Amino acid sequence: MEGSLFYILMSHDLLHPGVVFPYQHPRGRYQLSFMEAKQACEEQDSTLATPEQLIQAWKEGLDCCNAGWLADGTVRFPINQPRVTCGGPNLLPGVRSYGSKDKKRLYDGFCFSSALKGKVYSFQPKGKMNQTEAQQACQSDGAQIATVGQLYAAWWLAGLNGCKAGWLADGSVRRLITLPSRKCGSSKPGIRSLGFPPPERKYGVYCYKLDD
């Protein structure tokens, strides 16, 4: 469903600056084994987050009701806003742990992306594009289509500003919200996922270019 995934605030680890973000398979919630979650994060230019990184992210506002794999093989989820649909309104805020699970069990993943080696930018040279056109547009500009991890790192660490929805390398479309407004569809900053639309749908694109 369009606009169904919205995560308010990510975080950085004080010793290893970066950003923690939840990641789902294109098929939806709870589709990733431990190894698949690890691979999915790596494909997003990230790694599976550690428990310490997730706790730090929770302290700075990360709220996600979907349980996800972490690097140590445990499954956890951070709650800052207890609610009926997420453990009940009487549940105290915190990082909930299911402990170590069979690594073939299916959950989401929590990824950690550190400092960028290049820049991410919104690109729309001749109007909105389908997925193939978006990939070609980045290539024609001497860049490649950005990963989810690169977009989060650019927003949180490099201060990327904007409100446009754009294609990413995994086939998802996401909207970066730095300055909340009615136009951006949210009252809070963050990165909003519009899911994995059909490839013929048209949006902008986020490109990634290595530093010279």
UniProtKB/TrEMBL annotation:
Membrane spanning stretches: none
Classification via SMART domains: LINK
Main location: secreted
Subcellular locations according to the entry: Secreted, Extracellular space, Extracellular matrix
Cystine pairs: C65-C86, C138-C207, C163-C184
Link domain ranges (all copies): 19-113, 118-209
Cellular component annotations (GO), alphabetically ordered: extracellular space; perineuronal net; synapse
The entry's keywords: Disulfide bond, Extracellular matrix, Hyaluronic acid, Immunoglobulin domain, Repeat, Secreted
Coiled coil regions, renumbered to chain: none
Single biological process term from Gene Ontology: glial cell differentiation
Gene Ontology molecular function, alphabetical: hyaluronic acid binding
PROSITE patterns in the cross-refs: LINK_1, LINK_2
Family indicated by similarity: Belongs to the HAPLN family.
PANTHER family: AGGRECAN/VERSICAN PROTEOGLYCAN, HYALURONAN AND PROTEOGLYCAN LINK PROTEIN 3
Record's protein name: Hyaluronan and proteoglycan link protein 3-like
Higher taxonomy: Eukaryota, Metazoa, Chordata, Craniata, Vertebrata
